[in-house]
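Sample entry follows:

:::
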Amino acid sequence: MRNKEATYGLIVETAYKLFAENGFDKTSLAMIAKEVGISKPAIYYYFDSKEKLIDFLFEEICKEIIKQYTLTVDDLTVNNFEQFLLNIGFQMIEEQERDVYFNKIFNEYILLATRKEKYMNQLNKIQRGYFENFSRLMNHGVKIGVVNGENVESKSNMLVMVIDNIGNFILTGLELDYKGIWEEAVKSVLKGVRNG
């Protein structure tokens, strides 16, 4: 017999998968409870509504995203800057390829954000965080001499948009050389790669 903590974890994991596969509207607490192996009334001990479960998952996903994009630039030098930048994209690509549910559920939250301001506000905060962190990273690259300072904000924004769209294309199942695409994007912003 599972303890309460294990049951709680299984509810969250199952909801994550079912919401991703079926969408929020077509997934009920009864479906989640059945998949977990508990009664529908028992699920209310953990989450008193589907909305609370959706909110909880959203907060957990947001925390994970924020942790991913919080970049430390102080240790970056001419020798490791390019590899660091490449690794950011490579890790995101690998994680999205491993977790087939992430983009699906994240798209559910994007749809929900069109109807509910609290989700839109949080998604905007996450996007701003990506742009700010990449801007800080690219400005550090200018400071150490590996990124040309011309149009540095545009270069920074381009990298954010490329990695974001790679995630969307992974969701479609289209098989492309995503790491190669990211590598080309990175090389295009580094000093000395520009065509005169």
